[in-house]
Each structure stands twice: as C-alpha cells, then as structure tokens.
Amino acid sequence: MTGLRVWAADGVPEVVPGDDLAALLVAALRADPDPGRRLVDGDVVVVTSKVVSKAEGRVVAADDREQAITDETVRVVATREHPGGVTRIVENRLGLVMAAAGVDASNTPEGTVLLLPVDPDASARGLRRALQEAFGVRLGVLLTDTAGRPWRQGVADLAIGAAGVQVLEDMRGQVDTHGRPLTMTVAAVADEIASAAELVKGKATGRPVAVVRGVGHLVTEEDGLGARVLVRTGPDDMFRLGSAEAYAEGWKDALAAGGAPGPAGPDGRAAP
Q1: What digits encode the pLDDT tens for the residues 67-79?
Q2: Which has the closest alpha carbon to 158: 125, 184, 120?
Q3: Which is more confident, 180 or 270?
C-alpha cells in the first residue's frame, strides 16, 4: 500500500428508528456524481455507530443522562469531578472502556439519549451483506465511535463493529528495514481506518458514512471475528483502574492485611 483515498458520502438523511439504514446508505453512495467514487472490490465503508443506533431504535427517553450511564455500566474505571459535573470512565456492556459508557446526548431529540448498538459486529455484518448485494463487489464495513485514550489529549474514532475487515495486522516474525525481527508489533488497523474516515465525516457535518480505498489487502472474503477482538480484557488489561482509584484500592488492601499503608501518593490523596 502506497496511498489512500478517503471520501464522505453526501445525501444520508436524518435517521430515525425503524429506517432501513442499508437502503439509505446504498442510495447515498449511488448518488455520488463522481464516477471515480463508484464502489470497487476492497473498499471499506465506514459508518458512524450513531446512525446505526438510531435505525435500531436505541434512542431512549432519559431526563437524567447519568441514570442511562449507570444502566449501561458494567465496571467503573475512574470518576472525576469537574466544574461542569462528573466524568465517569466505565466499561460498558460491550466491554468497551469509554467516557459515559458511550451514552450520547448530542444530535438526539430533547429528553432522549442514544445508546450504542446492542451488537455492533452483527450490525456491521448486516450492512455488509446488503451493500455487497447492492453493488456486487467485495467490501469491508466498520462501525465507529469516538473515545479518549490514556496519556493522550483529545478523542479519536475507533472501530466498535467490523465485518470483512482484518482488524489486527500481526507483524510479529517480520523484520524491519535493518533486518531486526519484529517481536511485539500488532497494528490495530481497523482503528487506523476508522480515524482516517473520521477526518472527512465528523459530528457537525451531517456525513455519517465514508469510504476508504487503498486497504484492500485487509478486506476479507469472510466476515471475520469482528471488532470485539480489539478489546483488551482480563490479565492483559494493565489499566483496570484510574490512578486515584488504584491508589485507594491499594490503601484499603493494606489496611485489610493489617499493615501500615505508605505515605500519600503523588496526587496527595488521603486515606479513604
């Protein structure tokens, strides 16, 4: 691969519960006046999960967004107060660790919030079947959402659903340009494609779908395992808690063991 082409499709209307999202996407992609944008084998169609949630009826009445977050939370990772309220970083029902459990109050009717799709991989598979049938080419489909990252400011899009896309590219066993063997490198290529697509989509543009061309080597015949395999869980999760929460847990463990906890940590937090 030596280059990418990425573009967003115009013409996708406001999606409401019960809409045939695949039909809306097909119509928008077919209406593109640029003949160079006709879908071809190896293209990846990247869809913002928000429109999938709307079509699937994941819009719920919620006067209190906080309660919706609580309902979607499996595990609290970190909680921080700020002048505008409280930020909660939690693991949601999909195993994703996100602010507010992925519950979104933007671009939804007043008094409602939007939950993530129940099964983003299944949603991606359904869209892939419909798009491939409509266009007669081999495609990949990604569903994306926005999340923050430890140690980095700002947010970026990542893949939460995938069909027909190799989501991880294992480079272990290859050699670098100096002949040294690669022993650790496994690239999250689905997330990289998702972020590339977000550069032409975006929340404020009204363009929820983009096409990425140039990564056909990552588009597979079968649907594949989906984006769920990108989630780091269990013993591989080195960041199970936020820093203050981990410190408090360690303090409690020391007291329970009858020992004397050490001095306050770098954040100066006292014993709970």
Answers
A1: 889 999 999 998 8
A2: 120
A3: 180
